């Protein structure tokens, strides 16, 4: 196997100029094909006045709009955290509160704790590092962590 790799490496080194020119020819021929296909596509779609412009002169008119949303309220974060924990099948709703300890009060084990943290990551759209996740044993801890991470203050 090593001899095969050595011989292929030697072949590439000796013929590097050939491979470069072959790659350049391939790229240039494919780009001209793409441009001609784009031009024929543009001729079918664009109005007559814009068909006269070349591909490089035509700039389609696209307007971008960026929307900003306000940060969620702390109460909304609390509700979302409690909803995610309540949706976990091993948690009973009557024992669940913000101060319920996952292991001591709710009877979850370490694997269940990891699954709850993963559900929080899915709900809020960011990853919680393992070092931080090991410290989050109550829904109140998770709410505080998310509020700190998202800069939510009340």
From TrEMBL:
Single GO term (MF): acyl carrier activity
Predominant localisation class: mitochondrion
Keywords tagged on the record: Electron transport, Fatty acid biosynthesis, Fatty acid metabolism, Lipid biosynthesis, Lipid metabolism, Mitochondrion, Phosphopantetheine, Phosphoprotein, Transit peptide, Transport
Lineage: superkingdom: Eukaryota
SUPFAM superfamilies attached to this UniProt entry: ACP-like
PANTHER family assigned: ACYL CARRIER PROTEIN, ACYL CARRIER PROTEIN, MITOCHONDRIAL
Pathway in which this enzyme or protein is active: Lipid metabolism; fatty acid biosynthesis
A Pfam family reported for this protein in Swiss-Prot or TrEMBL: PP-binding
Descriptive protein name: Acyl carrier protein
């Amino acid at each position: 196997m090593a001899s095969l790799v050595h011989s292929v490496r030697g072949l590439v080194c000796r013929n590097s100029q050939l491979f470069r020119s072959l790659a350049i020819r391939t790229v240039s021929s494919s780009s001209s094909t793409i441009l001609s296909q784009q031009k024929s596509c543009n001729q079918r779609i664009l109005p007559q006045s814009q068909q006269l412009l070349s591909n490089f002169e035509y700039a389609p008119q696209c307007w971008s709009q960026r929307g900003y949303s306000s940060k969620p309220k702390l109460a909304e974060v609390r509700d979302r955290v409690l909803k995610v924990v309540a949706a976990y099948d091993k948690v009973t709703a009557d024992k669940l509160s913000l101060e319920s300890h996952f292991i001591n009060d709710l009877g979850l084990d370490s694997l269940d704790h990891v699954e709850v943290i993963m559900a929080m990551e899915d709900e809020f759209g960011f990853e919680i590092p393992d070092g931080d996740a090991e410290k989050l044993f109550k829904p109140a801890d998770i709410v505080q962590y998310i509020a700190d991470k998202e800069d939510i203050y009340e």
